[in-house]
Amino acid sequence: MLGALACVAPAPAQDFQKDVAPFLQKYCYDCHDAEQEKGHLNLEAFKDDSRFFRDQRVWREVLNQVTAGEMPPAKKKVRPSAAEIEGLQSSIQKLLVAATAKEKTDPGEVTIRRLNRLEFNNTIRDLCFLEENFSIDFPADDTGYGFDNIGDVLSFSPVHLERFLDVGERIAAKAMPSKPAELDGTGLAMIEMLPKGRRDSQQRYFDPAPNLTGMMAAPRAGAYVISVNLRSTGSAGDPPPKVGFLVDGREVGTYQFTSVRKSEVAEVKVSLEAGQHEFTLKWLNPPAKISGSNRTLSGLRLRLFGPADTRTEFQRRLALAVGKTTGDDRAKIAANWFVSRAFRRAATPVEIARYVRTFRAAEQASGSWEIGTQAMMAVVLASPKFIFRAEQEEKSTARDAHPIGEFALASRLSYFLWGSLPDDELFQLAFANKLTANLEAQTRRLLKDPRSQYLTQGFGLQWLQLRQLSVVSPDPALFPAFSEPVRAAMVKETELFFAEVVREDRNVLDLLDADFTYVDRSLAEFYGLQGIDFPRQGEGVSPFVRVTLPKGDRGGILTHASILTATSNPTRTSPVKRGKWILEQILGTPPPHAPPSVPDLEAQQLKGSLRERMEQHRRDPACASCHTRMDAIGFAFEKFDAVGQLRTTDEGKPIDTSGKLPNGKTFAGALDMKALLKADEEKFVRNLSTKLLTYGLGRGLDYYDAPAIDKITASTRQAGNRFSAVVMGVVMSDPFRLRRGTSQVEKVSELPTKK
After folding, report:
1. Strand partners, 186
2. CATH 2.60.120.260 spans which residues of the chain?
3. Does 185-305 carry CATH code 3.30.300.20?
4. Which residue among 253, 518, 667, 720 is least enclosed by CB atoms within 10 Å?
5. Which 3-state string (H, E, C) describes 611-635?
6. 718 and 745 in contact (C-beta within 8 Å)?
7. Is the pLDDT assigned to residue 596 strictly greater than 90?
């Protein structure tokens, strides 16, 4: 297959006229010559292999069509034998290998890219330590080649400029406030604490147990105060209550009431790490029998105040960087620390001097170094050097392809896997000129970091085109089970499923078929899944659980309700849309555009079931060339209705999900079709490699990128098709690591680039 080109050993020279032209003469020239030129393709124009590298898209598509059985058309009585097809494939592969060997490595152009909205938020999160959707008012990002991080389409308008100026000031004020913040506090209603027991309205008693337990979260590590207002009752001779405070089962302090029949505030100081903790309030000297006693202890709310250090994370880190310096020295350190991280490279002396002037002017005018820092930050965040990812050329005189700079490589890697700026470790390696030598190890480190789940949102959901699910409107009369909560659950199912493939480094073929998925209560009911043990809901508890699917057609993204609904019409399924989606997004072999003269299915006077109407539609030769394979794939999933629920009939007739592909392979339904797609492993892996490289580079691919795709595909298959192998292939590829030299000018393909 084509993905194995990178591993083909040197072979005897091939001759185009002797090894390829005879096949074209026998089977192709009838339709694809200078006179007819069907599909805008004139194969007769190719006389030798002199342009084989530039024209390789043509030859790869010729092989795809021939090996899939789509060309020559089924109506042709004389068709190539298996031996002839194998001979053509071998000859073209060897010609491509020979043509590639003659060419210099061309890593393609570098496009300056604006941060898209998601990248902007992630960058602010890691630069200023603020979690917020700061880009909510930005204009929507345009998409190209299926993604919203493509440099050529990320425009910059006056509205963008206005929004960046405004948001920069807001971010600076939040990250570096000029006044101390009030102590934060959170609380837990005692009636929600366990075990359940006696209550009076919102007042909860230590009855029947002398202890109450509940969960609260510490936003960050630091010193906290646990506080509770308790009410005590009893007789004059009774001992005053004494309570103990426990965190995660460990006693952290006690409080002794001064008397009985009194309300008092009990408090204790404690140091906590960030995250969820179990808090227990224990009555240490209760009566022998709590229930029925006139000695009682009760309260309304357990409170957690802190941390005592109310500075923002940005303030603490900047204070650590500047130490005890003041004046110009403090301004220089602050500017160097912030500007270098914001610009994703070491700040130059000229840049530091410029931002020091801004810092000092604001500081002297206000008398506050916090205001000085805010002014400096706001200007930096509005700079094109922050807003745009521009890679500095460090070897401007190199004639041929050469490695990009270390800081540029760090940014390419971090924005590819995290959608954010490089962290301190990447930055330090780049500064020491050691990142290239440690690129593989750093890639694996970034993949293991929780921030790599950005690949799900940034790449996965866009590749699967799930954003269009938000505009699909199934007919509520025909599909009453569909609702907005179900729509949201559909997307979340696919998101969690894809995230597991990334997180657990699973075989990418699991995307096509797997025996597990993620559902919440609404989606489980929608799918008809029973016997699922859902966890008790509470703060921080996901409503989704991982479930093993019963044996059947459902399994993998192709049978997720999200995909099935997004590829349907409002009133019925669309085998055409489903088949086209699989050809484009899964196999990377999109069908040609429909001729403008072909009418819609609904516009034709056709009778019978949907399948029968489409069979009538395909009788038109102009339709058959596109629909033969596309419709067959789509019909394999007809047991799923327009919102992805299983069914057995359509329009009162039994559903037929069987079919035959142009290459002669047959299937009985979705299960068989998924098996056929998995068997076509090379095509799926190659397409996934193409999509991921496009996303990682932020540009469309051209003919000179084909050798890189071949290598990524081959290395991924050799590594057991693990997701990390595709990522590693992209990162180690020439287009990702290199840039063009002075002798390499932009090459324009004669074939139109697909978007």
Report:
1. 304
2. 185-305
3. no
4. 720
5. HHHHHHHCCCHHHHHHHHHHHHHHH
6. no
7. no
